Amino acid sequence: MNNLVREPILSLDDVSITYPGAPAPAVRGVTLDVAQGETLGLVGESGSGKSSLAAAIIGLLPDGSQIGGTVRFEGRDLAHMPARTLRALRGTEIATIAQDPFTALNPIMRIGRQLDEFQHWRGDLNRAERRARATDMLAQVGLSDPEVRMTQYPHQMSGGILQRIAIAAALLAEPKLLIADEPTTALDATTEAQILGIMADAKARVRGATVFITHDISVVERLCDRVAVLYAGELVESGTVAQVLEAPKHPYTQALLACDPARIGKPTRSLPTIPGTVPAPDNLPQGCVFAPRCPVAIECCETIRPKLESAGPGRRAACHLVNT
Amino acid sequence: MANYLLRRVILGLAVLVVAMLLLFLLIYAVPGDPATIALGPRASEAQKAFFREQMGLDDPLPVQALTFLWNLMHGDFGTDILSQRPVADLVFAALPKTILLAVVGVLWAAVIGVPLGIWAAMRPNTWTDWVIGIISTSVVALPAFLTAIYALILFAVQLSWFPAIGAGEPGNYGDQAHHLVLPAFAIGVAWVGYIARLVRVAMLETLAQPHVRTYRSFGVSDLRIALRFVLPIAVVPVISVLGVGMGNLLSGAVLVEVVFSRPGLGSMAYDAVISRNFPVLLGSVVVTTALYVVANFIADAAIAYLDPRLAEKG
Fold this sequence. Notes:
Chain A has about 325 residues and is an alpha/beta fold.
């Protein structure tokens, strides 16, 4: 095996993101790799920076945002690439699935025309061929009457059907990197289960890797190989799903798992929560970002920021209690 | 869709009937004896009585109102006091000229205003946006008759580029087009600014919607997104505002026709006021109102065509 094959599809090194006009970066020092064939779950509460990271990867942060560090996709730095070159990767090698299927499609255009437009890079196909591909893909994501769907408008369909269409749109690109930003958050529980099944099929068809953004640990368990936990814009723990979910090292990951209703065995009158709130990016504690809410914090946690360091084979954590 | 349009037609007809009744009451409330006004102060009592009898002026008010409506619905607008010709003939001869003026005026304004609005919305809060904003806000404030007078003085009187008076030789389309330039310019100037402002706001609002991000995440260029996927949504509110603004456009056309002595509904109404030619005034006002209702219907139909969600809701 030569080095090229082992090179990760996506490699983030010390990535920080500062929004225009913001006093402090929203994401700081995130370093992680996604290998060929792997599905990474990016987990965190709202405001943890997971969607900002996704936007940074595809170059859709608001104008004037600053990205520090490097975001390498197959060795090319996406963060410092001309906008035109990066745009040519979107919809070809990198595809995304948006969070809310109800607003992700143009409300006044038929599905067929939209799926045709999403294939705009495929100049090698004529319109009839692109439409045939789209109809075929709709059938593959489990939609009945794909020809009818092609002629319908988004408001005529349910959230589950719309999200299948969004998945089909992403798969039409035959991407090397698929980014799904909370694709089931806007759906009800039954539909969510169906869409997760479709997603499992979908990621198997992606040529490279998949990044799955979610706040739901059970989604990670079901779909992902590795997991990266974000807190207040920093990566606090990463590892394989089996390692992290069975024996979380970072106190934040431990608290997050303790709050997952699916993992609570005993009957309870109240669901556990993590006391306190996530600090704002411009008002971070001096030491560890989680220290003010951490149940096991010691003195040095308040003053010294822990580095993300190896915590066993293939896993890392940013915590003084783990690293010392 | 058909259901939606049918409902709009019925609504439009209802508006027309109510407007006609209001118009009737307005005329009824005009001070002075219509017979004296029509026949002059030296007419005998017998003549006046005969006139009243003939015009149905002694009938009860509701009967008069219904007769008024009935006649209008049958295209009977009365007789021109001066020429003794049916008012309907005069009005329908003038109608196309006014429609042409209004349509050309608003069309050229849209051709300039829509791209300006798109351009400003694609570069919000930049110099481009500010310059377009300053220009469009300043021209919105210009009344059409004022623009008409200045255009007349500058381009017709001083530079002699365009004729100052009339609508051109009948049958000579080149000459008619030449005569149309200045009046259409005068009507459209304020609309350029108005349309640019409306389009900018609607574009900005639509550009912020999540589906725009979906298209960007598929690498579709910003210009293509703006023109093909955002503009068709953004023009919907613009069209409905323009439909309501037709009243303004028509009153602008009236004044501009007077300034340029162009034949049309406007100058006809103006002359009728001066000469107290009531039937002609009435006819031109009725047709102008109908024009307004029809313009609104066209706006509603265009919106239903563009946004399938509206047509289904009804």
